[in-house]
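User: My advisor asked me to double-check a structure prediction for Aromatic-L-amino-acid decarboxylase before group meeting. I don't want to rely on an old file, so could you generate it fresh from this sequence?
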Amino acid sequence: MDTEEFRKVGYRMIDYVANYFENLKERNVTPPLEPGFMRQRVPTTPNDDPEEWDEIFNDIEDVVMDGMTHWHHPNFHAYFPTGHSWSCVLADILSTSIGCIGFTWESAPSCTELEMSMVDWVGQMIGLPKEFLFLNKDNEKFKQHGGGIIQTSASECTLFTLLTAKRLKLNEGNINESDLVCYTSEQAHSSVQKAAMLANVLMRMVKTDENDSMRGSSLEQVIEEDVRNGLKPIYTCATLGTTASCSFDDLEEIGMVCKKYGIWLHVDAAFAGSALICPEYHSWMSRGFDLMTSFCFNPHKWMLINFDCSMLWVRDKDVLTKAFVVDPAYLKHDNQALAVDYRHWQIGLGRRFRSLKLWFTIRRLGVKQIQEWIRLTIDLGKQFEAMVKKDDRFELYNDAKLSLVCFRLKGSNEKNEILYKKVNNTRKIFISQSKIKDVYFLRFVTCSRLTKIEDIEFAWNVIQTCIE
Ligand code: PLP
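Assistant: Sure, here is a fresh prediction for Aromatic-L-amino-acid decarboxylase from the sequence you gave:
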C-alpha cells in the first residue's frame, strides 16, 4: 500500500465512520449472537496473497459491525460511559501515524512534554491541589512536588501506586513482606482487589455505611486490629463514585486516618472524576484532596476522550519514579537528569502518544463545552430519575448524585432479574445490573453523546413494556 492508496482508502474510511455515527440509531444496540460466532465469519487460516481494499471493506459490516455492542448508540445505558469525540479520532490517526514509542524523553520529546502539559491542563480543570502539577510556579516552596501521567486504565494506576507504597515500606528494612496490609471499601471496583492480588499484599475490605460509603471510623477500627496483630498498614484506596452505585467514600475522614498511620491514600475517581471540572461538583467532591497521596480518573469515561486515557497524579513524583528504576545503557540519554522519562512511571516500557487526544479535544471544545456535556448527562439522568419516581411500581436504590440512576421494581430481586433480562433481550436499549448487600437493582446511565431526551423517554417506555 503506497501513500496514494492510503489517501484514497483513508477518505473512504472517514466516510464510513461518519456514516456509521449518522445512522447508528437504526441498529440494534446489542447483537443476538452466541460465543464462537466469529468462527463462521472469518477463514480459519490467513490469506497468502494480498486482497483488494474493496473486499476488506465489504466485510466490515458482516464481520465486525454485526457483532458489536454499540457503545455510542443513543440507547446504550449500561456500565459507565466511554468517551467519544471526532477530535480524538483525528488525534488517534495522527498518533498511530507518527507511531512513536515514548518511553523516554529522548525517544519522543513532544510525546513526553505534551503529556506533561496535558496532565497539568487537566489537573487544573479538575482543581487538583497545585502540589500535584508539574509546572507549578510555587514548586520551589514544596520540599517535593508532583506530576502526572496518562496510563491505559485505572486498574494499572491502582496497581502501580500500591506497588510503590509496598516498595517504600520494604525499603525501610527489617519488614516481612507478608506483614504488609492495604485497605479499600467493600464497594471498591474489583480492580482494587486484583491489584492487591497482583502485588501480593493482604487486602482488607472495609465495611461501608448505609450510603455505601467507607467512613474513617470503620477504616480505623480495621487498621487498629491489624496493628495489634503485628501487621504493617501501607495503603488505602478510596473511591469517589463507586461502580455499583456511584457512592462516595468520606475522603476527609479517611485522609485523617491515613495521615495518623502514615498510609498512602490513593483516590480512584475513574468515572466520577470528570464531574470535578464543574465547580458545583468540585465543591463537595474535592473535600479531603489535601490529604491524598495520589489521584486517578479516566477522561476516557466521561470527558469525551476516546479510550484509552486514564490519568494518574502523585503528590511526590520522586517517590513514584524512583521505586522501580532499572537503567540499562540502551535506554540512557544525555538529558536524563533534566527530563521526565515516563518509563519509570508505569509497568510497561512502551507507550502511545495519548496526550494528542486531550490536546485536540480540549482545544476544539474548550472547557466550557466539556462542562456542558457533564451537566447535560446529569440532567438527563435527573429526568430519567423523575420518570422512575412517578411510577409507584418502582423505587430508587439511592439518590443519584451524578448521571447514574440505580432503580428497581418494588419487591423481590427475582422480579428485577427477570425485568433486566427482558429489557436487554429487546436489544433496543442496553442497561446493566448490580447487587449490594443482597439488594439487586438496575443501573441506567447516559453514555452516548448522541443521546437526547427522546431517547431517555424511549428507554423508559421499553422498560415499562417489559414489566410482567
Ligand atoms: N474504578 C472504578 C470506580 C470504575 O468504575 C472502574 C471501571 O468502571 C475501574 C476502576 C476500572 O477501570 P479501568 O478499566 O480503567 O481499569
